[in-house]
Amino acid sequence: MSTGVVVEDDVAEQFEDFKLKKGEPLRFFIYKVSKDKKFIEIEKKGTYDKTYDDFVGELPEDDCRYGVVDVDFESADGRETSKLVFISWNPDTAAVRPKMLYSGSKEAIKSALNGVGIHINATDYSELDFETAILPVVKKFA
């Protein structure tokens, strides 16, 4: 299902810099659908000193968002490493229309964020818990 929502050009451009660690070092991006429901745009950026918990704290409790976060962790062999994780935040408490709009527009942003191999769909904060939900998934790709 496509909604006709398109990704703004600067989303992909800034993501490429983020992925290649060019320019300002960042920890995460949060994206939203514009008020006119035509574009996906950058809503917030988290500086590199922010944490995964800061990222989760920036997600609205009752509205949908997309996000990409650079997750630092220790691999099974003891190496410090990181992975980029795409998160589709579609909380149960959100209204039906935004949930449908974000669900139907997810492929557009996923295709613009080339190089993110880990995709997580979350509908409540327990599905964003670092130790129980995120870390086991990223460790599979380390």
Based on the coordinates given, report the CATH architecture.
3-Layer(aba) Sandwich
CATH class label:
Alpha Beta
Average pLDDT works out at: 95
| DSSP, total strands | 6
Could you tell me the CATH topology label.
Answer: Severin
What is the ordering of alpha helices and beta strands? EHEEHEEHEH
Main sheet?
Answer: 6 strands, mixed
Structural Rg: 15 Å
Domain ADF-H: 3-138
GO molecular function: actin binding
GO biological process, one term: actin filament depolymerization
Family: Belongs to the actin-binding proteins ADF family.
Main attributes of the structure:
Severin; actin-binding; 142 residues; alpha/beta; globular; six-stranded mixed beta sheet
Task: Give your account of this protein's structure.
The protein has a single domain (6-141), classed as Severin, CATH 3.40.20. 32% of the residues lie in helices and 31% in strands. It has 4 helices and 6 strands. The protein has a 6-stranded mixed beta sheet. Strand 2 (26-33) and strand 3 (39-47) form a beta hairpin. The chain starts with 5 loop residues before the first strand and ends with a helix.
Quick recap:
This protein is 32% helix and 31% strand.
Topology:
Blueprint: E1 6-7, H1 9-19, E2 26-33, E3 39-47, H2 52-58, E4 65-74, E5 80-89, H3 96-112, E6 118-122, H4 130-140
Parallel strand pairs: 1-3, 5-6
Antiparallel strand pairs: 2-3, 2-4, 4-5
Keywords: Actin-binding
Protein name: ADF-H domain-containing protein
Family: Belongs to the actin-binding proteins ADF family.
